[in-house]
Amino acid sequence: MRPLRVRAPAPYILRMQRWLIIAGLIILAIGLLWPWLSKLGLGRLPGDIVIRRDGFSFYFPLMTCLIVSAMLTLAFWFFRR
């Protein structure tokens, strides 16, 4: 009887595992820092859409999404160089 050979995972799987761990750590850090991050005013900027009616409220942070997107784009561009 031949022993079973275990193959090493493909390189893309190792990269994916690393990125998932990094993403999890970033989400954890944001969760832990949330009390301080909420004081920055994100989510209450001019341009955020808020509709309140009787028994209904709709909130879409349009300007906040644009600012966070621009900050992340700059950060990824900076770290890529």
Helical stretch count? 2
Oligomer class: single chain
The largest β sheet comes out as: 2 strands, antiparallel
What class, by secondary structure content? alpha+beta
Uncertain residue ranges:
none
Task: Output the radius of gyration.
Answer: 21 Å
Shape: elongated
Helicity range? 55-70%
Strand line-up across the major sheet: 1-2
- Domain count, please report it: 2
What percent strand? 5-15%
What is the residue-mean pLDDT, rounded to a whole number? 88
What is the terminal separation in angstroms? 53 Å
Number of strands: 2
Element-level helix/strand string? HEEH
Structure description:
The chain folds into two domains: 8-40; 41-81. A two-stranded antiparallel sheet has the order 1-2. By secondary structure, the protein is of the alpha+beta class. Helices cover 57% and strands 12% of the residues. The protein is built from two helices and two strands; from the N terminus they run H-E-E-H. Strand 1 and strand 2 (56-60) form a beta hairpin.
Give a brief rundown of this model.
The protein is 57% helix and 12% strand.
Please describe the topology of this protein.
Elements: H1 11-37, E1 49-53, E2 56-60, H2 62-80
Antiparallel strand pairs: 1-2
Supply the key terms.
alpha+beta, 2 strands, about 80 residues, 2 domains
